[in-house]
Design brief:
single chain, 444 residues, alpha/beta, four-stranded parallel β-sheet, four-stranded antiparallel β-sheet, 13 strands, elongated
């Protein structure tokens, strides 16, 4: 498996720290609202990556957090006259449901910030004692100047960032680039700390949760949206390097952003699309297919036409699978099927090439073509048909596409044979009645 490493700006071969096992962490959402379609893209991208790695035989530990303390969460709780946990629990379940609807596996571990507070406070204290952070009044800041490699991930120089930094009212910081590790707060959920009663800054939580869950300071893959590269992921690396002299992850993988009809999705433009609405309208398969037919690093432009085209493509795939499945069931096929090597290898070669899902879907359609040809021969080669169906099914599993195919009962089989006999006997009335019933049962 080769992936584009944002830290080195090169495509590199994944070399797991532990043979046969991959540790992967993906930055999760701040849970104060339903997931929008931009939140859904990393769900699909990194679930697809996980499935591709597993198809290669790797054991993947996939971790994604929930940020359940934030100003927006506190504001939502105040507006709804409830507590923060009520808000976050509801939207954590909403995210879990979106994963299910998109055929994505739930993460193996989903840590929450509020459940990791003792470790976060301890980590910040270690940064202060090391000199990489400092207390200013009741707040704590990370000292960017303490990391000589700061800017490595986003490929920016600190001096250039300083020139572009806005002048802030807060003059307690030594450097405009220094970022908050702990802040004193007067509103919402708070924790006692050596510095003040308050809560942590955003950039520390993931470093600590990675160390907690994996029990180490360097993992294989850290992922997230391109918008997190700077400053969030840059700041994660800086903190980890200050205490443990590692970049936190060997591979940093970022998915591209989403545009709506060519415009950046934003609340100010009023063009935010909610994932649940799109899933309800088009179905999880269609939403996922739209995302995987564009390379994960490229910007993804969404519009109604894209979803309609995806629905048509998926219907072609499902029709081929259904016809093959029905034919095998009618023949009472009980043999074992194997993947067709040249088709499966073409598919996995694409997936191994920086998760090239557009090329992988081309392999899917080549398999569909061969499956249709095999299903239309006068004398069916059942072994060939079964092998092609299995190959396609396994490809779709890796891509996260699931179809409900008809399971034929004895009654269904008898009706199908009645239909064929009626056609042969030119009994069109009976044939039409049988056909209508078979179509209603999704068999034809």
């Amino acid at each position: 498996m080769k992936l584009f490493n944002s830290r080195t700006s090169t495509i590199e071969e994944l070399q797991p720290l532990e043979p046969g096992k991959v540790s992967m962490y993906v930055c999760g959402p701040t849970v104060y609202n339903y997931p929008h379609i931009g939140n859904a893209r990393p769900i699909v991208v990194f679930d697809t990556l996980k499935k591709a790695l597993e198809a290669q035989g790797y054991e993947v530990t996939y971790v994604s957090n929930y940020t359940d303390v934030d100003d927006k969460i506190i504001q939502a709780a105040l507006e709804q006259n409830t507590d923060e946990k009520t808000i976050t629990d509801a939207f954590i379940e909403a995210y879990a449901q979106t994963r299910r609807d998109l055929n994505a596996d739930q993460p193996d571990v989903s840590p929450r910030v509020t459940e990791t507070m003792d470790e976060i406070i301890r980590f910040i204290d270690e940064l202060v004692k090391s000199g990489a952070a400092y207390q200013a009044g009741d707040d704590v800041y990370y000292r960017v100047s303490s990391d000589p490699m700061y800017g490595e991930l986003s490929h920016q120089k600190p001096e250039d960032l300083e020139v572009g930094a806005r002048i802030e009212e807060n003059t307690t910081k030594e450097n405009p680039l220094d970022f908050t590790l702990w802040k004193k707060t007067a509103q919402g959920i708070q924790w006692e700390s050596p510095w003040s009663k308050g809560r942590p800054g955003w950039h520390t939580e993931c470093v600590v949760m990675i160390q907690n869950v994996f029990g180490k300071n360097l993992i294989d893959i850290h992922g997230g949206g391109m918008d997190l590269k700077f400053p969030h992921h840059e700041n994660e690396i800086a903190q980890c390097r200050s205490l443990h002299d590692t970049p936190l992850a060997n591979m940093w993988v970022h998915n591209g952003m989403i545009n709506i009809d060519g415009l950046k999705m934003s609340k100010s433009l009023g063009n935010v699309w909610w994932a649940k609405d799109l899933i309800q309208k088009f179905g999880g398969n269609v939403v996922r297919w739209v995302m995987i037919t564009t390379h994960y690093r490229a910007p993804l432009n969404l519009n109604e036409e894209a979803f309609d085209a995806a629905a048509r493509e998926l219907e072609k795939i499902r029709t081929a699978m259904k016809q093959a499945s029905v034919a095998l069931q009618l023949a009472d096929w009980t043999g074992s099927a194997v993947r067709v090597p040249e088709l499966w290898d073409a598919f996995m070669t694409a997936m191994d090439d920086d998760l090239n899902t557009p090329n992988a879907t081309a392999a899917v359609f080549e398999t569909v073509k061969k499956l249709n040809q095999a299903a239309r021969t006068r004398t069916l080669d059942l072994q060939q048909l079964a092998d092609l169906e299995k190959t396609l099914e396994d490809m779709l599993y890796v891509l996260g596409i699931r179809f409900d195919l008809p399971r034929l009962s004895d009654q269904d089989k008898a009706l199908w044979h009645q239909w064929k006999d009626a056609v042969k006997a030119r009994d069109f009335e009976t044939a039409d009645t049988c056909r209508a019933t078979l179509q209603a049962r999704d068999i034809l």
